[in-house]
């Protein structure tokens, strides 16, 4: 497991701490070193809930922007077709 994957767990742990630049373990005062799981992991339900709602917001924003793009493309194609019909008459 690389550092990025380890930090996903650390961000959701009650025992996380921060130094000037990064998340560290409040028990060891170091970056994570576990390979498959941390024996001291204790889930922070508030942080997990916050992360889940943030992910949901991002998905909603992406869905809304995708719909907007398809509407603009549809309108543009209709206008192009109308112009082509007018030009062919």
What does this structure look like?
By secondary structure, the chain is mostly helical. It has two helices and two strands. It has helices at 3-11, 45-88, and strands at 16-18, 23-25. The longest helix is centred in the C-terminal third of the chain and has 44 residues, at 45-88. It is rod-shaped and about 80 Å long.
What's a concise summary of this model?
This protein has helices spanning 3-11, 45-88; strands spanning 16-18, 23-25.
List keywords for this structure.
89 residues, 60% helix, mainly alpha, two-stranded antiparallel ribbon, single chain, 2 helices, 2 strands
Question: Helices, strands, pairings?
Answer:
Blueprint: H1 3-11, E1 16-18, E2 23-25, H2 45-88
Antiparallel strand pairs: 1-2
Kindly state the percentage of residues in helix.
Answer: 55-70%
CA radius of gyration is 24 Å
What's the tally of helices? 2
Please identify the structural class as seen in this structure.
Answer: mainly alpha
Low-confidence stretches: none
Average pLDDT level: 83
Structural shape: rod-shaped
Q: How would you write the strand order of the largest sheet?
A: 1-2
Q: What is the strand tally?
A: 2
Sketch the topology as an H/E string, one letter per element: HEEH
Strand content: 5-15%
